[in-house]
Amino acid sequence: MLDTRAVSVGALQLWTERGFAATGWSELAEATGVSTRTLLRHFSSRSEIAWIGVAPATERLRDALARAAADEAPAVVVRTAIVGSVSRDRQVQELAPAWLRLISSEPELAATAPRIYQPWIDTLAAYLADRLPDSPDAICQALATAYQSATFAALIEWADAGARGDCADSVDRMLRWMDPHLPGSARA
Question: Residue 43 above 70 pLDDT?
Answer without folding.
Answer: yes
